[in-house]
Amino acid sequence: MADVLIVLVLLGIAVAGVAVAVRYRRDMRAGRPLPADPSVPYLTIPVFVLLFFIAAAFEEVGWTGYATDPLQERRSALSAALIIGTIGAAWHFIPWLLQNSPVWAAGQALSTVALRVLIVWLYNNTHKSVFAATLFHGMVNVAGFSFPNFGSHYDPVVTGAIAVAVAAVVVAVWGPTTLARRS
């Protein structure tokens, strides 16, 4: 389990860095104004970790602890992840749409579904650890709010594309049936 968590932490750091770089480059090319003094909320990150971990725990007890195994008994792990991810995205879609553009909301929905594939993969490879799923979920949220200026440069379209690419690699390597190590 430790090796999977280490890989995920390193992957998360790399994905966040790539997402920030892609967004800044896109904004520069489009002539959008960039903040002269971008601030990263370093002192509030520990508070974010605590709050987002608690919030993620409530979601993951339901999505992962309650719904994932019964779905995987009837369907493949990939199908279970896609079903849960789609329901989760639909649940959040209206609030996203009310606060952001339709493109932002669609990107966030794509990101949510792809990240659910990664959460099910993580869950299946950590001896069904809801804690690992919760930690990953919470840290994804912390990463979004840790972008400069409290997430003002977070772009779910970029994040969604990266998450889909990582999820595709996971499915290709571990297989859609179990998303787990082959014995």
Can you summarize this structure?
Helix content is 78%, strand content 0%. The protein has seven helices and no strands. Residues 44-142 form the CAAX prenyl protease 2/Lysostaphin resistance protein A-like domain.
SSE layout and pairings?
Blueprint: H1 2-29, H2 45-74, H3 77-99, H4 102-124, H5 130-145, H6 148-151, H7 156-174
Number of strands: 0
The sequence of SSEs as H and E is: HHHHHHH
Q: Helix proportion of residues, in percent?
A: over 70%
Nearest-integer average pLDDT: 85
Shape by Cα distribution: globular
Count of distinct structural domains? 1
SS-derived structural category: mainly alpha
Keywords: Membrane, Transmembrane, Transmembrane helix
Transmembrane segments: 45-66, 78-98, 104-123, 130-151, 157-175
InterPro entries: MmRce1-like (IPR042150), Rce1/LyrA-like_dom (IPR003675)
Pfam families: Rce1-like
